[in-house]
Amino acid sequence: MIFTSVTFLIFFPLVCLGYFLVPRKLKKTFLLVASYYFYMSWNPKYSILILTSTVITFLSGLGIDWVRQNREKFWQGGKPENIVVALSFISNLFILVFFKYFNFLTNSIEAAFEIIGLQITMPTVDVVLPVGISFYTFQALSYTMDVYRNETKAEHNFISYALFVSFFPQLVAGPIERSKNLLHQVNEDHPFSIDNMRAGLFQMLFGFFQKLVISETCAIVVVEVYDNYDNYPGIMVAVATVLFAFQIYCDFGGYSNIARGAARVMGFSLMENFHNPYFADSVADFWHRWHISLSTWFRDYLYIPLGGNRKGKARKYVNVMIVFLISGLWHGANWTFVIWGGLNGAFQVIEDILKPIKKRCVEMFHIKTSSFSYRFYSTFITFVLVTFAWLFFRAENLDHAMALICHGIENTEFWSLFDGALYEMGLSERHFTVLSIAMLVLLTADLMKESGIDAIEWVLKQGIILRWAIYLAFAYYTLIFGIYGPKFDAAQFIYFQF
Amino acid sequence: MTEKMEKSRKTKKQVIRAICGILTFMIVFFLIYKPVSRIFEEKMSKNHRLYECFSMDRNSLDMILVGSSHIHYGLSPMKLWEEQGITSCVASSQSQSIPCSYYVMKEMIRRQHPKVIVLDTYYMVYNIYARDQALLHVATDPMPLTSPVRYEMIFDLVPKVEGNEDVWSFLFTLGLYHYRWETLEHTDFYPKNQFAKGFSAEAQKVKIEKTEMPETPGKIPDISEDYLDRIIQLCNEENVKLLLIEVPYHIQGVQTTENLAYHLGVFRALEDYAAENDVPYINFFRDQEGIEWDYSGDFFEPAHLNMYGAEKVTSYLGRYVREHYEMPDHRTDPAYQKWNEDLKEYHAYIQEKIKKEKKRIEKKKKKLEKTKMKMRELEKEIKEAE
After folding, report:
1. Is the ipTM of this complex over 0.90?
2. CA torsion B356→B362→B367→B371, rounded to 10°?
3. Least CB-CB distance to A481: which of B11, B15, B181?
4. Beta-sheet pairing, B116-120 with B241-246
């Protein structure tokens, strides 16, 4: 079930109620059953896959422990636990690649042969992508690595481990949790706390607001312009891409807020996944603020094993490119995602290369790097670069992306920004106003966060009348201006295809 | 007290605070939800009559008139008031199916405890729960949010009517109608005063043919019969007199000849059915003593009576209920003074309609004169040219 459905709005309170009422011994099992029920509401058959990944990685943890304890008995030197890790990775990645990338790989091989003039037909598989597979696979694999690196103790209780992998708030679209953070929480007591409940519920409400009001409204223009770009001036491709930047932020960020809020109501703490990403002053900084759980996963389990920045500048750039190309591929079985990842990697490499030049310029011209104008400039440039890359992320395929860019350059018609054409792409002027107000609220919340003030805590500190007025304002703004219901298509989260 | 007991007591306190807080918040939320969702509902087009009827003062109506558009063009509560001093309203909606009528009647009985409830039997011919989900909304949306009948109706009928909506958009209409925020109008906030109590007067005249009732009865559709049974049972339990009527209409213009026989067959069967269940049935397709139909002047379109036809039916019905039931006469009762004021507005409304129709006819006459003149000129030109 998706979060923005009536089913979830019934499921969630019932699960919370059950969780707090059920005796302590049964709480883990209860949550595990609820999580599998949540997952199976998409497709019951694919619960076998997540169970398989869970069992393999659970056994890998036990296996590594056992190998270490019995090293002297069976092996003379060497590191046989490497085999356990390798088996765990190979089997899980095999499942992931098969379900997600099989057709992409076969189509790419066909295309490659076509380029050299050979026609071949490769088999295709007709599978529906199991929801959340990229997320839970990575989460389960991180456990194997953490046990191997002695950063986590192997979990001996299967229920606890299974719950760690399938905990429903973060199961389908992250945050990709680490055993260090979530596994011990699964084994701990979480007595009811009214503060947690209020903070969690408000965070969920804010997530719904982000998703249904901002993300879905932006999507109206994005879909219209990206599908019919020829009908609009080229500058509107840029406008739509900027709106897409907010669509995906509020879609994914909104989902993460709902996930973290839901977990918080039950007393769990999930990691922060987004930290005001569009306030970043460099692309490198952006990736410390966007999808933090994924970037840190790649840093810890790919970038650092590749050598990170410990083997010289050239190797560092190569590592960065590898990580971002693969990260792009993680997002989807399409070359557009690879290019998107590659662009983000390339921007960071170029930023790094230009660093000394930048430093010299700053010194030469006595530029105040702490000044508002400089910070605004850095933030603005970063936003432009990141948004340009988003174009590839959103485009259907490479041809589409190139067509959009060409149209944007050749038929820009910059003045159409001022002649009312903005209001003919699916959103009226009134609707744009509604969206702008919502964006202002988002900006305020993010600005507060950037200044170190937790917006949610700030609201909770207010008097009851103001607090409730804020809750009701968010609730009714979302109910009235949100894009949901039988008159619109069901609000689907973008990241569900991963 | 041990630390554990202290902790447990603190948690219990928090739980109680949380439950109280949530319940209070939900009450406040609902208090706001009620008027907000009403504003967004589409009230004025097809179903304003139901909204009006459900909001009339409790226990103020002697008679309720229920059915589809046939009855809101066919019966005038203000005429009933004028001639008999009986208070009534037309609780109808477009294409109201018999199951919907059942629930409308249930709610109106709950609110008004009338002496008599009148059901027009036109929709008995259709074996449906509702024409489609949009028309089901037309009947469910006006139901008061705090009435159990609303929820009974939704859970009974929504699953049985095809469409892409589920019960939630019927239970929480804001989830369906919120998109109207861009097109809200004055009447969404301030509905018009409906002095006519649901009646719609039309002054146009259209010629139709008389239809004769058949000898042999047809078959009453199952769904209609099922809900008619429930209506009969409801009226018996609530001690309300049920009166079935069939307001006349011209089928030939509306349906094909095949359905003509079918419709009349159903009404014929209903006559027997009503007799079996001891329910009076006034079938206006049959000649009724005291009513003289003018087949050129009583209908404004083949399916619906105009105000002249409605006056005839209303007068007849008024005399009938006066004769057969102990109906009060409130005309001199000071508590019902508002009805006399509404009557003045009603008369003005009728006069307005007659005036408009006269103007329309004048316009057409003028157009005819102009066309005749043009024809004469053309004839002249042709003659001269020849």
Report:
1. no
2. 160
3. B181
4. parallel
Who has greater pLDDT, A43 or B343?
A: B343
Residue A223 is encoded by which pair of tokens?
């879909």
Sheet architecture: strand order including B116-120:
B88-92, B63-67, B116-120, B241-246, B281-283
Residues of B with CB under 8 A from a CB of A: 7, 11, 14-15, 17-18, 21, 25, 28-29, 32, 36, 40, 164-165, 168-169, 174-176, 178-179, 181-182
Nearest to B169 among A20, A480, A486 (CB): A486
Cα distance from N-terminal residue to C-terminal residue, chain B: 123
In chain A, whose CA is at the least distance from the CA of B13?
A194
**Chain B contact present for A487, CB below 8 A:** yes
CB A88 within 8 A of CB A171: no
Between chains, do A488 and B164 touch, taking CB under 8 Å as contact?
A: no
Catalytic residues of A: 331
Would an 8 Å CB–CB cutoff place A473 in contact with chain B? no
Task: Considering only the C-alpha atoms of chain B, give the largest distance between any 2 of them, rounded to a whole number of Å.
Answer: 123
pTM over 0.90: no
| Largest Cα–Cα separation, chain A | 81
Are B25 and A20 an interchain contact pair (Cβ–Cβ within 8 Å)?
Answer: no
Interface test with B, best of A16, A433, A479, A489 (most B CBs within 10 A): A479
Query: Block means of pLDDT (10 residues each) for chain B, length 386 residues?
Result: 79 88 95 93 77 91 94 94 95 93 96 95 93 91 94 96 90 90 82 83 89 90 96 96 91 61 91 95 90 90 91 95 93 90 93 94 94 94 92
Quote the DSSP letter at residue B320.
H
